[in-house]
Structure formats: structure tokens, C-alpha cells
Amino acid sequence: MTFFDYFANKKPTTASLAKERLQIIVAHERNLRNQPDYLPALQKEIMEVICRYVDVNVDDVDVQLDKNGNCSVLELNVTLPNTRN
């Protein structure tokens, strides 16, 4: 790398950006395809139970299903509001 290469315009090409975005979309779709059919209903019911006790936004709840060999792990991350006054 020369001194002038540092100042060269290194914008990614449109094709490379489109390829990267498509790879992200395909990976996301593959992840959704491998989820069990009951997961959306389970997420909705979990959200309803959480909302009974704590006022949280839907965006503050993250539900993931991880598969590790023969074992499936349901991971639930909830960002609770700060209640200190």
C-alpha cells in the first residue's frame, strides 16, 4: 500500500453491495424456514404474558430458537424498562 492508495476512493461497487444484501436476506430466510411451525404462536403468547406484568415494547423482546445437535434451546431476551424514579 502506497501513500496515495490511502487517499484513493474505495467506494464499494453497486454489484458488491447488492450481493452482500442478497446474502443477508437469503441467510435470514433460511433461518426462518428452519423454525418450527409453532414458534410464531409461542412468541405471541410469551409476549402477552410479559405484558401482563411489565409494560414493554414488542421491539424489546427477542426470541430465538437455537439447535445444538439433538437439543433445541429457546432463548428469550427482554429489555426491561428502567423503573427507578
Describe this structure in words.
There is one protein chain. This protein has about 80 residues and is an alpha+beta fold. The protein is built from 3 helices and 2 strands; from the N terminus they run αααββ. It has a two-stranded antiparallel sheet with strand order 1-2.
How many DSSP E strands?
Answer: 2
Mean pLDDT: 78
* Range of strand content: 15-25%
- List the helices and strands in order: HHHEE
Helix content: 40-55%
Largest sheet properties: 2 strands, antiparallel
**What is the tally of helical segments?**
3
Which consecutive residue ranges, at least 5 long each, have pLDDT under 50? none
Q: State the separation between the terminal residues, measured CA to CA.
A: 55 Å
Task: Assign the structural class, choosing from mainly alpha, mainly beta, alpha/beta, alpha+beta, or little secondary structure.
Answer: alpha+beta
Spatial sequence of strands, sheet with the most strands: 1-2
Indicate the overall shape: elongated
Radius of gyration based on Cα positions: 21 Å
Write a short abstract of this structure.
The protein is α+β, with helices and mostly antiparallel strands and 85 residues long.
List the SSEs and their pairings:
Elements: H1 3-7, H2 14-33, H3 39-53, E1 61-68, E2 71-78
Task: Output the keywords.
2 strands, 3 helices, 85 residues, 47% helix, two-stranded antiparallel sheet, alpha+beta
